[in-house]
Design a protein that fits this description.
Elements: E1 4-5, E2 9-10, E3 21-32, H1 40-57, E4 64-67, E5 71-82, H2 86-107, E6 113-114, E7 126-127, E8 132-133, E9 138-139, E10 141-144, H3 152-161, H4 169-179
Antiparallel strand pairs: 1-7, 2-3, 3-5, 3-6, 4-5, 4-10, 8-9
């Protein structure tokens, strides 16, 4: 049986709509091999070699890594905060995605890529570590790296300082509107 969870809190269990969010607790970055001809065993060996190289390139160590079968999730636990911080959460998620894309590119990785659509989505479901993955026919695995939780403001400030998050999100929104 395959199990999934959403690492953020909702007012009611019946809906994962953004309007139903009540607390933000985790940002997950999803890296997958959607276009790989490798067998599951070959891919899992590749992922095990890839992760330490990636961790060496990152400015922020994730709390937990979940090896999902044909990919890997990097879990960043933040101090729980109210859903009113969703804009800050989204900017942090976008900044972490940029950080990961840059790190993956600098390694010269061609098989694994950041799944931007799945990464950092506050309402997304993610595979529960140690559950069975029917698609790959394997059990997922995980590794806890540390238990420290950063306040969302601290993470946001650090991503701003590293230029992964704009100091002026309003200007960024104006640029996006003018492009569209």
């Amino acid at each position: 049986i395959t199990f999934y969870c959403c690492p953020n809190g909702f007012k009611f269990w019946t809906s994962r709509a953004r309007s139903n969010l009540i607390s933000l607790q985790t940002i997950v970055i999803d890296i997958d091999a959607h276009k790989s001809d490798l067998t599951t065993d070959q891919l899992q060996a590749h992922i095990k070699e890839f992760v330490p190289k990636l961790l060496d390139k990152l400015f922020f160590t994730p709390n937990f890594i979940s090896f999902t079968g044909r990919g890997v999730h990097f879990w960043y636990c933040i101090e729980p905060c109210h859903a009113s911080f969703l804009d800050t959460y989204n900017r942090c998620a976008k900044g972490l995605v940029s950080c990961f894309k840059e790190a993956v590119s600098s390694i010269g990785e061609s098989i694994l890529e950041v799944d931007e659509r799945a990464s950092g989505n506050a309402t997304r479901l993610y595979r529960i570590p140690y559950s069975y993955n029917l698609k790959s026919g394997t059990w997922s695995d995980g590794e806890m790296l540390h238990t420290e939780r950063l306040p969302i403001e601290t993470l946001h400030g650090a991503l701003q300082a590293l230029k992964y998050v704009s100091c002026f999100p309003e200007r960024e929104k104006e640029k996006e509107k003018s492009v569209n």
